[in-house]
Amino acid sequence: MAVRDVTMYVNNNYTYKTFESCNEVVHSQTGNDAIGVMCGKWGAELCTPERWYDYQGNATENPIAPFNIFYFYSNETTEFDDEGNEYEVFNSETLLCHQAFEGKVS
Questions:
Q1: Among 2, 57, 61, 101, which lies 20 to 30 A Cα-Cα from 67?
Q2: What is the domain count for the chain?
Q3: Does the residue 62 lie in any domain?
Q4: Is residue 52 assigned to a domain?
């Protein structure tokens, strides 16, 4: 049995903060914005938090994505699918790319 795809409900604020935390990192091999490499066809200039996440979870367009991740963005703490199933919306602390979580190496 293998994972074919995942559906993830994620908080809008979390996606924005994670995007902003690494938005100005420079890719050492190209000298360009690293976010552009991670945003596929959109590149750095047209990349948004949603486009970034969507590319990361697109196994068709992103050769390093192991399976599809379908993101649903929300400002709520819980969401319901079409069948009425309730899901917790993921929201977590974010740090800048150069920072480490307590007890971890950056």
A1: 101
A2: 1
A3: yes
A4: yes
| Tokens found for residue 47 | 């990349």
Q: Is residue 99 part of a domain?
A: no
Please give the C-alpha separations between residue 62 and each of 6, 9, 56, 79, in angstroms, as whole numbers: 15, 20, 7, 27
Residue 30: C-alpha distances to residues 33, 36, 38, 84, 97 (Å): 8, 11, 13, 47, 19
Range of the domain at 43: 5-88
Residue 20 falls within a domain, yes or no?
yes
Among candidate residues 5, 15, 9, 13, the one with its CA nearest the CA of residue 87: 9
Give me the half-sphere count of Cα atoms (radius 13 Å) on the Cβ side of residue 59.
9
How many C-beta atoms surround the C-beta of residue 9 within 10 A?
20
Summarize pLDDT for 17-28 with one digit per residue, the tens. Answer: 999 988 888 888
Residue 35, token pair as written in the block: 């976010």
Name the band, by pLDDT with cuts 50, 70 and 90, for residue 78.
very high
